[in-house]
Design goal:
The complex is a heterodimer of chains A (295) and B (276). By secondary structure, chain A is an all-alpha fold. Chain A has helices at residues 2-39, 57-63, 69-98, 105-117, 120-130, 137-144, 160-185, 190-198, 203-231, 235-240, 252-262, 266-294; strands spanning 42-44, 51-53. Chain A is globular. Chain B has helices at residues 3-32, 36-39, 54-62, 65-96, 102-114, 117-130, 137-161, 166-173, 178-189, 191-207, 210-215, 224-234, 240-250, 252-260, 262-274. The chains are: A mainly alpha (295), B mainly alpha (276).
Chain lengths: 295, 276
């Protein structure tokens, strides 16, 4: 085996080693991707899988007056922007805090990771229990201190449903920001801060003039990744509110699922999925343009 | 302000925030240990007055939870094995060989990593039905590869690129073959990276929900994520203490990983997820 591979040399060994990956990703990603695009041109009934060619009809419908693309895009953008902003602010603040000399610092650092790695199912169950109308801790605490007079149906009314989803999302995903930023903070030489101190810089200007430029690049990547992941997040929103009340928290990924397996319109679901992907690509290009414009 | 006082102040602040962050999870553990009467009380207690393991006993003997757990173990282990083997070889190729299309493959992998699962789910569902794999453990292992493999590949490539090429070249000069040098020299060097990748893959597979929701619809193949949610909707009265016990049990592998292998997780972040 070994001598045979040796004789193959670099020329074929490299491609040979990557071949299984290409084959697998071709089957589970490339093929489904193109199949989804193709499927979006058909009207497909999910149970019977009977299909009829409709061209761009699905797109015309979903973008039209009766389509749900634009309202759902609005919800998706509000959810993404709000939860991302919270994640970044809390994440950076927590990273700065955990970069200090603290009691039991390594224990603190691993406890902070917990929400990120715990299953979304677990996270949602816990929060649904906290938000329970009668016996949930949220209502009981808020009633005790007199903020609300009667129990609130957190996940069943607006705007508290959307707010709850945003807060739980921030809680679940901010540790990603903490780990990324903390790793970078640890590499900033202390001498930079000493120099700033000599110049009489206060805490805020040290953060603005030393820390922020140093973590800027990492923060840019973190914002990009988290924006993409929040935009396409399905589990958290679906499990927390199911898109309700009515459609108030129904983001684009939830629409795709609902069209395919709730309303049994697989072609329409594929069209929503493709439209969502094109939107993401559009935002990604805008981001690239903005970043390039600045540097 | 003396440094010691400052340290105390910052520590108190940091730890109160951490308790706030961990609060929901501590509440989960507390609820799982409370008796039914105590859970449904209008005067909530922070800690269980009379801690009981009855919900854990019910969970393990009277529900399908143990079956779900076993399914999840099989699915996550199989996914991790398949993904790590493919990714180790693929990353070796991307990091150490030059050939046409290499950069294109690397960018495609990164792009795959950004792709929404909901785009792939419908064609994958149709594919599994056509192959007769719907409602099998295999369908989930195959589907999970779609998001775990690009990530694993990217992570391992970064780890391998960080190892100096000279050590392998020395082995080659001593007469080792490319694969020999890979197994004897490079692989031991990137072992920590492989452990990180395996842990990440395992957690991703363990926690996955959407594919399990769509591809699997029978109790004997259902993993924990969808299984526990079925327990939530199937009961007439939601038994929160039982669900909290299920949540705790479901998080056990994670608690073990975070307690003993936290360094490997953090290294995974540093290498692949962020530096890209």
């Amino acid at each position: 085996m070994r001598p045979a591979l040796h004789h193959l040399g670099d020329r074929s060994l490299g491609p040979l080693l990557i071949a299984p990956v290409v084959l697998v990703l071709g089957t589970v990603i490339a093929y489904p991707l193109f199949a989804a695009i193709a499927l979006s041109a058909f009207a497909v009934d999910t149970p019977t899988l009977r299909s009829r060619f409709v061209g761009l009809g699905n797109y015309a419908e979903l973008l039209g007056a009766d389509g749900r693309f634009w309202p759902a895009l609005g919800v998706t953008l509000v959810w993404t922007a709000a939860t991302l902003a919270l994640q970044i602010v809390i994440g950076v603040a927590m990273a700065l805090l955990l970069n200090r000399d603290l009691w039991l610092r390594s224990l603190a650092r691993s406890l902070v990771l917990f929400p990120y790695f715990v299953s979304t199912v677990v996270a949602v169950l816990v929060w649904r229990w906290l938000f329970n109308d009668m016996f949930g801790l949220a209502n009981q605490l808020l009633m005790k201190i007199g903020v609300i007079a009667a129990p609130l149906d957190w996940l069943g009314t607006m705007p508290s449903a959307l707010l709850s989803v945003i807060v739980v999302g921030a809680w679940k995903f901010f540790p990603f920001v903490v780990i990324a930023v903390l790793a970078r903070l640890q590499t900033i030489p202390e001498s930079l801060y000493d120099a700033a101190r000599l110049d009489g810089a206060g805490a805020w200007s040290r953060f603005r003039d030393v820390t922020l430029p140093q973590i800027g690049e990492v923060l840019g990547i973190v914002v990009l990744l988290r924006a993409i992941w929040d935009f396409k997040e399905f589990d958290l929103v679906y499990l927390l509110t199911g898109g309700g009340p009515v459609d108030a928290t129904r983001t684009l990924p939830l629409i795709v699922y609902q069209e395919a397996f709730g309303l049994n319109r697989m072609g329409m679901a594929a069209a929503y999925a493709v439209a969502m992907m094109i939107t993401m690509l559009g935002f990604f290009l805008l981001y690239r343009l903005a970043v390039r414009g600045r540097t | 302000m003396s440094p010691r006082l400052a340290r105390t102040g910052w520590s108190l602040l940091a730890w109160s925030l951490i308790l706030l962050v961990a609060g929901p999870l501590l509440w989960m553990v507390a609820t799982s240990l409370k008796s039914e009467d105590e859970v449904f009380s209008l005067e909530p207690t922070l800690l269980p007055v009379e801690p009981t393991l009855e919900h854990y006993a019910v969970l393990l003997t009277e529900t399908a939870f143990p079956a779900y757990f076993a399914n999840s173990v099989v699915i996550a282990t199989a996914t991790t094995t398949v993904v790590v083997v493919l990714a180790v070889l693929g990353a070796f190729s991307l990091a150490r060989f030059r050939y046409r299309g290499r950069e294109a493959i690397a960018s495609a992998v990164l792009l795959c990593y950004m792709l929404p699962s909901v785009v792939l789910i419908i064609p994958l569902y149709l594919l599994m039905v056509r192959l007769g794999l719907a409602n099998t453990i295999a369908s989930l292992v195959i589907a999970y590869t779609s998001f775990a493999l690009p990530y694993a590949l990217w992570l391992l490539r970064t780890f391998m690129a960080a190892v100096p090429v000279e050590i392998e070249q020395a082995a080659l000069i001593d007469g080792a073959s490319r694969m020999g040098a890979f197994f004897d020299v490079l692989l031991p060097q990137v072992l920590p990276g492989i452990i990180s990748t395996a842990l990440f893959t395992f957690i991703l597979a363990w926690n996955e929900f959407l594919f399990a929701l769509v591809l699997v619809n029978a109790d004997d193949v259902r993993p924990l994520t969808t299984g526990v949610m079925t327990m939530l909707v199937s009961g007439f009265n939601i038994e929160w203490s039982l669900l909290m016990a299920a949540s705790v049990m479901m998080s056990v592998p994670l608690i073990i990983i975070l307690a003993f292998l936290q360094g490997h997780l953090v290294r995974g972040f540093g290498a692949g997820a962020v530096k890209g």
